[in-house]
Amino acid sequence: MEALITTQTKIKIVGRNTKMSFARLCIISFFCASSIINTVATAQPIPLKSCNGVYGFYGNPLAASGRGSDLRIILFIGESENILRCFKNTRAVKVAPLHKELASKIYSKIDEQLILDIAQELNIKDPYLGNGGI
Averaged over 74-97, what is the pLDDT? Predict the structure, then answer.
């Protein structure tokens, strides 16, 4: 008789943990989804300390199905003189005029819109874009 009670008790404990795990999973999923949405909404350019007039920002985390949801492109934008001076001795960042970069069709529509919005927000006259990769 004691073995039967012990078995029933274990089943109840497992049942409670399963319910608790599902509740935790729902809560964690909600926070992860809201953080991705907030990240997309608050992708603000940050001025680089070492390069005057050059701003860095991340691409949209949900932009391309080819890369994971946590992987985002780091992009740099600025006036042609500033950004070319900033990245002239590096191979890590590819710099080109904004219209040429967008014409290459390597960015998703979501990333393109984000880039254009930031260029307009910063009121850059001769925008160049630097792609720092993922």
Answer: 91
State mean pLDDT over 16-35: 47
Greater model confidence, 60 or 8? 60
Q: Is residue 34's pLDDT more than 60?
A: no
At CB < 8 A and 24+ separation, what contacts does 85-92 make?
A: 85/51, 86/48, 86/50, 86/51, 86/54, 86/130, 87/51, 87/130, 92/132, 92/133
Q: Is 131 helix (H, G, I), strand (E, B) or coil?
A: strand
Name the residue among 75, 35, 42, 71 with its Cα closest to residue 57.
75
The residues facing 129 across adjacent strands are 77, 96
The tokens 């078995």 sit on which residue?
7
Alpha-helix runs per DSSP H in 1-134: 2-41, 80-86, 98-103, 109-122
